[in-house]
Amino acid sequence: MCRRKSFHIVWAILFLAVVVSAAPVFGQSATLKENIYPVGKLKPRDSESRLKTGDKAPDFTLPAVDGRKVSLSDYLGKKNVVISFVPAAWTPVCSGQWPGYNISKDIFDRHDAIMLGITVDNIPTQYAWTRQMSPEGKLWFPVLSDFYPHGQVAQEYGVLRSTGETERALFVIDKKGIIRYIDIHDINQRPSLEDLVKALDGLEEKN
Amino acid sequence: MTKKMMTLLCVLLLAATAACTAPADRGQSAAGLAGEKSAATRPIRLPAPQSEQDAQYLGLSGSGSFPIQDIKAEAVIIEFYSMYCPHCQREAPRVNDLFAEVENRPELRDKIKLIGVGVGNSPYELTVFKEKYGVVFPLFSDEELKLLNRLNVSQTPTFIAVRINDDGSFDEVYRHSGAIGDLEEFIMQIKQSAGIE
Question: Strand locations in chain A, DSSP E?
Fold first, then answer.
């Protein structure tokens, strides 16, 4: 074998080796983790409390993903309201809460309650994100955008963090518009469903 | 010089080919995935069954937590899921189908058992999922992610088949993440991997 020929064969084999060893990496699917940004661990809490139980919940009007404008006062006298602030779209755990609430509508119905999901993201972002949250492609509860003025409602509720996203917070507001439960949770953890249900159970006593 | 290089490159190519034939996501072997033989020998402990019905289905005598090899079966299919995971929600009816299919076959019914492990889900959250989807097979709570970490699970839903051997040892023989796909094929792969029938 002359020198030139073996030179080409060497490179051919090297090239093949690289291509062949790369194949498994490209072949594997990452269907379940794609589009989720690895946030890492954040400061559990990064805001100052403004409200306490017994306070009147500040009214607000925000645009919803479904195109409506939703006000808290829409529900006065009609429904108990659970507001779920989640920090940001497309990040871990955040993706986790609402899909769970989405299959818990029975629990809310039983307590004559509705849920309002709020983030500081704009509507198109929320739309794309929430479409991934259920097999049907939508949630049963309104998702409201506190995007502009940025985090104004979050600010009023004392849950706007210094870096612009909201806390992971739950507020339970009764039919009289009074705050009955506040959980400004460690942002890195998902609040357990039974704590929310206990809070809703607590409404029966006074409502 | 050329001969040495050729040998070296042949070795390289062989090694690269071995990497390519490493198991893909579907139907991975235990050794190939975990990379350590010792993974099969560390215990897999499950929490106490949620109900008498669950205990009976699994063939458990006592109450309380138990090692996986106490389950009276040749293979146990573990579905790692979460009530907060939309993919798991979508797949839930299918998993119920899988359960029904195995139960409907006299030759499989006592050989393959199916359980669900709710990662990061509390017992209460198990019942929400159970009621929403009419799940009949046993669900176990893995709030502290002990089982998730023990079996090195990074996605949900993930289905892992563990073969229980006669001597009381066990081996992971099959793993698949995502939708079950064709039911027949899935059951076939489980049977083949576990050496059933």
Answer: 61-63, 69-71, 80-85, 113-119, 143-145, 168-173, 179-185
In whole angstroms, how large is the CA radius of gyration of chain B?
19
Closest to A89 measured CA to CA, from A153, A33, A35: A35
Q: For the complex shown, is ipTM > 0.90?
A: no
Q: What is the pTM of this model?
A: 0.80
Query: Cα separation of A202 and A173, whole Å?
Result: 11
CA A46/CA A162 separation, integer angstroms: 6
Number of separate helices (H) and strands (E) present in chain B: 8, 7
Three-state secondary structure call for residue A108: helix
Enter the tokens of residue A122.
């704009």
Mean pLDDT of B24-47: 57
Residues composing chain A: 207
Q: Enter the tokens of residue B173.
A: 């023989």
Confirm if A98 and A85 have CB atoms less than 8 A apart.
Answer: no
Give yes or no for B125 touching A (CB within 8 A).
yes
Q: Are B174 and B194 in contact (CB under 8 A)?
A: yes
Contacts of A134 in chain B (CB under 8 A): 86, 89
For residue A30, what is the nearest residue in chain B, using CA coordinates?
Answer: B155
